[in-house]
Amino acid sequence: MGEEGERLPQPDADDIELVKVLHALGDPVRLSLLKVYAAGVPYSCSPDALGIGHLHKSTVSHHMRIMREAGITSTRVVGRNRYVQLRRDDLDARFPGLLDALLGPPM
Fold it and tell me: What would the mean pLDDT of 64-70 be, rounded to a whole number?
């Protein structure tokens, strides 16, 4: 996917707040989405592709909005499609080691 399309509103990297990130990731569905997005490639918003096909589309949209507004992900709209990608560089710069701790093997 190129740079075409419109990016949905998200906080600037310097405005990402740790409390909002942790609150967003306190939900098990959003934590599982973080692990999917950690692959580093843009994902469509298809619940089946994200491994959460059991959830209603509006619920999936809600989870994605929470993650985007917290600064965890970036969403680009291309036509009728939306592509979500983890803001790994921004999060690593703002909170070094946080993603590695969250994505590491379970204890």
Answer: 95
The overall pTM is greater than 0.90: no
- Cα dihedral 10/26/103/52 (nearest 10): -80
CA distance 23 to 16: 12
Q: Which of 4, 1, 6 is nearest to 75 (CA)?
A: 6
Cα-based angle 48, 74, 94 (whole degrees, multiple of 5):
125
Angle CA 103–60–105, to nearest 5:
15
Q: Give alpha helix (H) positions in 2-105.
A: 18-24, 28-37, 57-70, 88-94, 98-103
